[in-house]
Amino acid sequence: MARTWKMDEVGEHNNQDSCWVVLHGAVYDGVYITSFVSKHPGGRSVLLKNAGQDASAAFDSVHPVEIIDEYLTPDQLLGKVESGHVTGRMETREAHSSQPKLESIPSPTLPPLESMLSIAEIESCAMKRLSPKAISYYVSATDDETTKASNGEIYRSVLLRPRVFIDCTRCSLETSILGNKVGLPIYVSPAAIARLAHPDGEAGIASACSDFNALQIISKNASMSPSAIVSAGPGAVFAWQLYVLKDLAATERTLAQIRKIPSIKFLVLTLDAPFPGKREADERFKMAEVAGGAPPQAWGTESALTWQKTLEWLCKHTNLPIVLKGVQTHEDAYAATLFPAVKGIIISNHGGRALDTAPPPIQVLLEIRKFCPQVFQSLDVLVDGGIKRGTDVVKALALGAKGVGIGRAALYGLSVGGEEGVKRVLKILADETMTAMRLLGVETISELGPRHINTSALTSRLFDGLSGLEEIEIKLRSKL
Fold first, then answer.
1. CA gap 248, 452 in Å, rounded
2. Which of 92, 56, 101 is nearest to 199 (CA)?
3. CA dihedral for 392, 238, 419, 189, sign (positive or negative)
4. DSSP labels for 172-197?
5. One of 71, 187, 243, 334 is an active-site residue; which one?
6. Mode of pairing for the β-strands spanning 26-28 and 21-23
7. Residue 351: helix, strand or coil by DSSP?
8. CB within 8 Å of 240: residues ≥ 6 apart
9. Exposed/middle/buried for 451, CB within 10 Å: 0-12, 13-18, 19+?
10. Which residue, 43, 108, 148, 475, could crosslink 286 as a Cys pair with Cβ 3.0–4.6 Å?
């Protein structure tokens, strides 16, 4: 029988040497929490600030309640808190799903949503609404942020080639991504901790996507549970982002939970951040919070993933199609075609948050077209990073992408208007995309191709070495 503790007993364990916390009426293992203090990705001060206390409200502001069952095992439970001291776990779960308690966010007067005409304008308004913590997390990128800037700037170097005397009365944005019909070629990339932006969180994004029959890739680090998110978007299409953690058992428990959600149509295995980039704005904010000095350097993602071993393991735990996120070279795009379980790739540099001066996705698309164009027939190729205009969407599609992802833009829309703000972001991009297609003389997404764009200004930026495909064939096929 679990022991019952008084809150003053729990309160004695309130420091780095002995750190206990109460979550939804349960007292969690001092050894586990204490050892985790120096590794907590949100900074140790978050744990120490709540040490010896009921941390449920702080926990719920950034985590789904279900993550407790995913990461904490029964042997890490010390017992329960004496009744009357905290709200019961089931009651708190219900409150959590309806009205989360978030840190206070300043609410300056913003112009009406319908008057915001561009993603840049929505971003500008979001900077007035988001908390310093949210800005440091969402906006930051690695080192000098060269890649983050290049992701968007490179689109300016691609010119469109409009045609005339073509009936452009009809235009459709409908397409398919991994066999799933969607109303837009624009999808929402996995964007973590959306409730830092607005209480609607990922559910608000899902509901907005539902209006457009759009794809949402649910972040592994979402602030709401996958089941709650998919319930909010009956008309949306869902995929789920997978990080393989060093704690492989925890990853397998998560995959077991995902198998129970039929609305999730494919898995997105994220590979572009096996180790954290040096995001100085985010680190600077954490340093201000962290007691006793520098932010933690621990990283919970498994860094020893390999093609054969990891994909064999993953196929034992899911029957869903697998998409590899974080492909940044033509060589890896080609290698993905050698594994039947892989049905798609996302060309992404993690929004410039991993390796600075890595190539922007448009450049990688061009290199795939140059060295191994057969990739586009073998896999669905998606891209994300730097999308701010419908013309950007059209350019990526013309180069062979099946879908174009937005991450920060969705969070900025969420911050300025919750679900309605995300709808506004999607509508702006949809309208701009449709206008660009009409002016190009294109009626459907499938008609877009290289003839609609001029990329000659980027020729000098492309990789000019050997293709390396024979080496990949020898190395990987011998193991298959």
1. 46
2. 101
3. negative
4. ---EEETTEEES-SEEE---S-GGGT
5. 243
6. antiparallel
7. helix
8. 217, 218, 220, 226, 258, 261, 264, 266, 267, 268
9. exposed
10. 43
Amino acid at 388: K
Contact 412, 143 (CB under 8 A): no
Report the C-alpha gap between 201 and 217 in whole angstroms: 14
Bridge partners of 327, per DSSP, are 347
What residues of the chain score a pLDDT lower than 70? 1, 29-47, 57-58, 60-62, 65-76, 84-107, 281-283, 285-300, 479-480
Residue 350 catalytic? yes
Residues in Cβ contact with 334 at an 8 Å cutoff, skipping those fewer than 6 apart: 368, 371, 372, 375, 469, 472
Residue type, 355: L
Q: What's the maximum distance between 2 C-alpha atoms anywhere in the chain?
A: 80
Three-state secondary-structure class, residue 222: coil
Q: Any bridge partners for residue 268, and if so which? A: 241, 323
Contact 444, 172 (CB under 8 A): yes
- The model carries a pTM of 0.84
For the segment 195-241, what is each residue's pLDDT rounded down to a tens digit? 999 999 999 999 999 999 999 999 999 999 999 999 999 999 999 99
Given the residues 24, 40, 63, 350, the one annotated as active site: 350
The two three-digit tokens of residue 40, written as one number: 């907590």
Burial (CB count within 10 angstroms: exposed 0-12, middle 13-18, buried 19+), residue 469: middle
* 60, 200, 272, 332: the active-site residue: 272
User: Are 244 and 325 a contacting pair, CB within 8 Å?
Assistant: no
Residues 6 or more apart from 420 whose CB is under 8 A from it? 113, 208
Given its phi and psi angles, is residue 326 left (phi above 0), alpha (psi -120 to 50 degrees) or beta? left
Q: For residue 465, is it left (φ>0), alpha (ψ between -120 and 50) or beta? A: beta
The tokens describing 442, both together, are: 């294109």
- Report whether 312 contacts 340 (CB < 8 A): no
Alpha carbon distance 417, 378 (integer Å): 40
At residue 24, the 3 state secondary structure works out as: coil
Closest CA to 70 of 245, 280, 275: 245
Indicate the pairing of strand 3-5 with strand 342-347: unpaired
404 bridge partner residues: 186, 383
